[in-house]
């Protein structure tokens, strides 16, 4: 891979977007490799994935403006679909994905972070959707996910004005879950991923599926989705072991993912 580094540490997969000279901007190759990296994650052993950016300045400074500058209408639509398909893959990835946002998360960078389940950032992080200032709309899901995460009014303000917000404001509006000093960000992300990894993997996956699918439908249908996934858990060895351990007043040594 030219622009993506992948490492597995125990049960945690760590993806690093590695194009620091362009502040990890997303060109077609980065997007293609990002999709391929997710496809190659070992689903037997990996229980959570972390995405971060190389360097100390930027998570992702957006889609590559140089590459986008010459697009035609149909090419623009196609490029939007390429980004949307990869980000949707991340959003629907069976196991949780944590964004460790280590600096700029602008345009496509903010959109990438929003496709992850949980967003942790460093204190130097900056978020924004600068697209309308470049003559385009947010095109990798920003018009949809930002409104769902921070609310319609705040999303419209950020998108129409192209105002950037810093880490503390991102925390206040609910765009990120927590802020850490830059040097402590990865440790915090790995600690959270490790906590996820210790729980029953099938139950964690089913919870992600229930939340994601439930948000797409009305409450009554959503609760049926939950009931079915909840019921499925009772066919797993992990449920039997989890409850047996509780009743025997001991900790589960290791969930078996079955
Ligand atoms: N694309 C391409 N190159 C970039 C990008 C980018 N988004 N961001 C930074 N770079 C490059 C710079 O050109 C520069 O390269 P070089 O050294 O060769 O000149 C290098 O990275 C370092 O950047 P700066 O010198 O500008 O660093 P500064 O610290 O001075 O500034 C900023 C950092 C503020 C992050 C600044 O680089 C900046 O404003 N970048 C652009 C941010 C932006 O507007 N992002 C949104 C892009 S649009 C988008 O993401 C749309 C997504 C949906 C697409 C849908 C398609 C249909």
Automatic annotation (TrEMBL):
InterPro entries per record: ClpP/crotonase-like_dom_sf, Enoyl-CoA_hyd/isom_CS, Enoyl-CoA_hydra/iso, Enoyl-CoA_hydra_C
Key words of the record: Lyase
EC number: 4.2.1.150
Segments traversing the membrane: none
Cross-referenced Pfam families: ECH_1
PROSITE patterns: ENOYL_COA_HYDRATASE
Entry keyword annotation includes Metal-binding: no
BP terms from Gene Ontology: fatty acid beta-oxidation
Highest taxon, organism lineage: Bacteria
Catalyzed reaction equations: a short-chain (3S)-3-hydroxyacyl-CoA = a short-chain (2E)-enoyl-CoA + H2O
Family membership noted in the UniProt record: Belongs to the enoyl-CoA hydratase/isomerase family.
Subunit relationships: Homotetramer.
Protein name, entry field: short-chain-enoyl-CoA hydratase
């Amino acid at each position: 891979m030219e622009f993506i580094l992948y490492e597995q540490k125990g049960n945690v997969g760590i993806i690093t977007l590695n194009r620091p000279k362009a502040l990890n901007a997303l060109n077609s190759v980065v997007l293609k490799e990002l999709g391929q990296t997710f496809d190659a994650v070992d689903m037997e052993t990996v229980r959570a994935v972390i995405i971060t950016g190389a360097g100390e300045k930027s998570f992702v400074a957006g889609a590559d403006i140089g590459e986008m500058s010459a697009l035609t209408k149909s090419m623009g639509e196609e490029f939007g679909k390429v980004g949307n398909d990869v980000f949707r893959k991340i959003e629907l990835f069976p196991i949780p994905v944590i964004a460790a946002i280590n600096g700029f998360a602008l345009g496509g960078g903010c959109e990438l972070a929003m496709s992850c389940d949980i967003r942790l950032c460093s204190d130097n992080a900056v978020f924004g959707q600068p697209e309308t200032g470049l003559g385009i709309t947010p095109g990798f899901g920003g018009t949809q996910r930002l409104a769902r995460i921070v609310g319609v009014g705040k999303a419209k303000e950020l998108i129409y004005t192209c105002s950037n917000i810093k880490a503390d404001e991102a925390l206040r509006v609910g765009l990120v879950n927590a802020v850490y000093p830059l040097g402590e960000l990865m440790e915090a992300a790995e600690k959270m991923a490790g906590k996820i990894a210790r729980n029953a993997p099938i139950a964690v996956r089913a919870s992600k599926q229930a939340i994601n699918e439930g948000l797409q439908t009305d409450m009554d249908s959503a609760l049926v989705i939950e009931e079915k996934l909840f019921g499925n858990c009772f066919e797993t060895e992990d449920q039997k072991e989890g409850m047996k351990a509780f009743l025997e007043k001991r900790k589960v040594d290791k969930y078996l993912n079955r």
